[in-house]
Amino acid sequence: MTRAVPRTVRVVAALIPRPGLEDGGPRYLVQQRLPGGSRALLWEFPGGKVEAGETDEAALARECREELDVELSVGRRLWEGRHTYPDLTVELVLLAATIVSGEPKPLGAHQLAFHTPTEMQALPFCEADVPLLDDLLAGRLGALD
Predict the structure, then answer these.
(1) pTM here?
(2) Phi first, then psi: what are they for 132, rounded to 5°?
(3) Cys-Cys crosslink for 102: which of 31, 32, 70, 85, Cβ 3.0 to 4.6 Å?
(4) Which runs of E-coded beta strand occur in the chain?
């Protein structure tokens, strides 16, 4: 009996800093997934799936408009990785982004929060995000602009 190969999806995520100076270092927006779905209540960086014919940048802007009710200025690519779950393989791309209008609302998430990379270590993150978080904590992503 052969095992089915999981489908592959391309996912974009945003590294969105909270505006202003922060004690303890910069804080970035993360979201907790909704209960009841796949990877329920795990944390991740905001974003979503890239649709056919979309660029990564356009997909990220659309997903954040739909799920956070914000308009973004999308910057450079910061990180890429791949993770295989039992049900799918995720090709994850992290892009720098800033909010140009709106206040983030959890329209597609259980909750939103701004955390430092150190604080994020205490949160249960989706497995695909863990190597990204490790690189963020180690300062391997470089400048956001």
Answers:
(1) 0.92
(2) -60, -45
(3) 70
(4) 7-15, 28-32, 43-44, 47-49, 71-84, 88-101, 111-115
What separation in angstroms does the CA of 129 have from each of 21, 38, 100? 25, 15, 25
Cα–Cα distance measured from residue 142 to residue 145, given in angstroms and rounded to the nearest whole number: 9
Tally of CB atoms within 10 A around 100 = 10
**Confidence band for 58, pLDDT divided at 50, 70 and 90:** very high
Output DSSP code: residue 86: S
Q: Which domains does the chain have, with CATH numbers?
A: 23-137 (3.90.79.10)
Q: How far apart are CA 86 and CA 109, in angstroms?
A: 23
Length reported for the chain: 145
3-state DSSP assignment of residue 71: strand
The rounded distance, in Å, linking the Cα atoms of 33 and 45 is 10
